[in-house]
Amino acid sequence: MPRYALMVEYDGAPFHGWQRQADGLPSVQQVIEEAAAHLNAGVVPVVGAAGRTDAGVHAEAQVAELDLEADYAPERVREALNFHTRPHPVSILRAARAPEDWSARFACIGRAYRYRILNRRPRPALEAGRVWHVQARLDADAMHEAAQMLLGKHDFSAYRAASCQAKDALRTLDRLDVSRYADAVEFHVEARSFLHHQVRNLVGTLVQVGQGKRPITWPRSVLDSRDRARAGQTAPPEGLTFLAARYAEPLDWV
Amino acid sequence: MPRYALMVEYDGAPFHGWQRQADGLPSVQQVIEEAAAHLNAGVVPVVGAAGRTDAGVHAEAQVAELDLEADYAPERVREALNFHTRPHPVSILRAARAPEDWSARFACIGRAYRYRILNRRPRPALEAGRVWHVQARLDADAMHEAAQMLLGKHDFSAYRAASCQAKDALRTLDRLDVSRYADAVEFHVEARSFLHHQVRNLVGTLVQVGQGKRPITWPRSVLDSRDRARAGQTAPPEGLTFLAARYAEPLDWV
């Protein structure tokens, strides 16, 4: 069976996350799988992703894999999926043939996320559902400084969701940059892989530094404690966007 | 009666434009006027705007004026309007006291719009409703070159809507820049004032140059003809955003 890689953009707002829901609630995976069934003699294939994003989380370039019974050109797969995923806010940006043993999830050696805060008094109109609205002025430089102390390989138990199913909490944080752009504060985060809620817990904790409620050294002391109860709130999902997945072997995207 | 200036951000998608509709269809003006009635002993005031945007057109910083019976601090007006405009995607970014004879529309000496095209094969997911989706590759440099021939003071009859109510079609186009940013092509347009559909007609005409269907000199020859029938299509409203209104007298925004 030919395997395909898909690069997918989606607005997370109407979905209960990437993953297909047992109770039939709408998910990105279900939308793509049901579109793919049209290319697969009605048989619904399983579509796996590099990052199983939570409800409300967006993607600019999620990567997924798909097996089909028949051998189609990747252009054809991309076009057909974009036809059948309508009118959902899910768009297949690119497609590629992938090796038969390739996995969007397990072959991925780097994941990048952006978290966006709208940091102003009036509520968002144009960016509603795309940002976390934080009214109190944030010190992005202080957050950036605090973030640099979290880089490298650590036990991130303190920043892990209670529901996290990973075997261990050891992760290597490669990038955690915090920058201000006018009324927005953006976090750019990269690692080989993340724990469940890790990015949102890091953001929620750093925001307490940005508000001046905690010292710059506090997020690091939370990390060292390995105690989830010490970290800040989980930042809301709508500010988070899956930006990119990196693979050792390049794919021939069209 | 104290007069206030309001700077307003809105998502045009759910509205039949800025202007209050005789048939009661939702408009931005109505949302703000009804919110303002809460500050005005229930009396609904009239709110005028610098740019009466069409259905589906967005604003990052529309400017409007509002008269109230009572004298409130501008902060109070801004906060109260943001409370009462919920849950509509309309946000009062700033407010200011304005002179009694000041008009958001007639005192405005410069208006700036952005038009955004998503220029790629797959349909938009994250930018659905915010861009015109043009699949065929556009030559932004050719469009920019053609656009420069339209700058200055001209009779823009060829780029005016049939429904335009302006007394004459003489307008001075100060800026019409076309630039590519990855998969997007953006138009930045500035003038003291515009005719109805002028920006969208300019975009729709320049796109024919970008697609290679017409020479770079064509939009200028359309202008010189003063014949609306010769111009390209009216670009769809969802790609257009009102960016800014300029005034000779600075306002004391809060």
TrEMBL record, chains A, B:
Pfam families: PseudoU_synth_1. It catalyses: uridine(38/39/40) in tRNA = pseudouridine(38/39/40) in tRNA. Substrate binds at residue 113. InterPro entries: PsdUridine_synth_cat_dom_sf, PsdUridine_synth_TruA, PsdUridine_synth_TruA_a/b_dom, PsdUridine_synth_TruA_C, TruA/RsuA/RluB/E/F_N. The active site is at 54 (nucleophile). The keyword Transmembrane does not apply. Its EC number is 5.4.99.12. Residues 7-106, 146-247 form the Pseudouridine synthase I TruA alpha/beta domain. Keywords: Isomerase, tRNA processing. GO terms for molecular function: RNA binding; tRNA pseudouridine(38-40) synthase activity. One of its GO terms (biological process) is tRNA pseudouridine synthesis. Belongs to the tRNA pseudouridine synthase TruA family. Formation of pseudouridine at positions 38, 39 and 40 in the anticodon stem and loop of transfer RNAs. Homodimer. This is tRNA pseudouridine synthase A. The gene is truA.
